[in-house]
Amino acid sequence: MGLFSLLFGGGLSVKEMSKHLAKVEHGALLSSQQKKKCVQLIQDAQGGIIDRSKVKITLAELSIEGLLGQGLDNELIVNNIHLVHGSVMRILAGIDKEIDEEISKQEQLRGELIDSMIEIESCFTSHPRTMREYANNTLDGIIDRSKLKEKIAEHIVQELLNRGVDNLIVKRNYCCVLDFAKVIAVEIDKVIDRVEEANNFIESSELVAVKRLWDWADEHNISKDNIPRDKDGLLNLEKLSFMDIERPLEEGFSLLPKEISILRKLKFLELGSAIHCEYVLNHLSELPEAIGELSELTHIHLQQSNNLSELPACIGNLSKLKVLKLGGNNLSRLPKEIGNLEKLEVLTIWGNQLVEITKEIGFLKNLKGLDISRNNLTELPNEITNLTELKIFLYDDDKVQLSEEQKEWVTMLKNNGCELI
Questions:
Q1: Which of 53, 157, 205, 252 reaches 20 to 30 Å from 19, CA-CA?
Q2: Closest to 244 (Cα-Cα) out of 218, 279, 217
């Protein structure tokens, strides 16, 4: 029978009321159900549902309601309220140990919860990628910035549940979750501010680069068909070609501006080939380091540039490059980084001043066409025999002395249908 359902029936005397109260107290002290009810009040008090200081009053009120519900005279209860009060105090004292144990348990669970949230906060703040992801999602409108704290709180709750924390404990301490979410949100706000500042700077720098590229195009009389004079058209340019342009030698250009690096979608760069003796497309003397930033490039055509004497090492950054045409220049060497171009299928370096070929050429195992003729080569690196997929191979067989291994390789190529010139 419950604690308050045991309270008295109607018509009881004070003596009988006291006697029955003693029985109720004894039953309450032995009843796990009653202990659980009082402990639940304390648990609720920890969550802010009921003020712990009012637990005693709450029990007294419930006691009186129980007495009235059993038909006891209201005057009798009022006149003997000290009996009800004394009974409630004795019941509370009797289960005090259980209440203290429950409070201790709740505090321990709360401590463990806080420890877990500290770890989660650390995971956020010590991993810039996670912070940047939240910042970018906020800037992109995926997350409402005004609700960033609540979004992070959801993340924390899910992490806690994944770690096996009881959902009820999380709910009772949700105010702590929000406090931790607020700390993390402040840090992400700082990241957002930095990203916005950086984006503004990049946009400003990009506009400067666009203007300089336009100035360069105007200076060399390059039409808008080749270099679009609108920003979006320029930044989305996939092919930059001057192979259909005729201009006198004095109007050609010897340098590409470093601002070419803003053409991040560029796939084809074609600046070579003489058209006839009095007209050339350009007379490049060097390539800017910025060429290595054009990561989408698949084709580079720089043949007949005449004055190109060196290929920058950054050429090795162009991992998507398939065709590299450098014939008719003044190259004396190839950078070893050319071996990084694992997708390269065509390499033409005829008509240069090469006295040797870097051994890293052996890494270009997808090469189908190779022209190294009309240079100053007398020997080839043994690593060239790794190029077993060649279908066209041009070299000066009257100048180059092949090793026995290389002779076997050339024979193998010929037997496989490779055109040898």
A1: 53
A2: 279
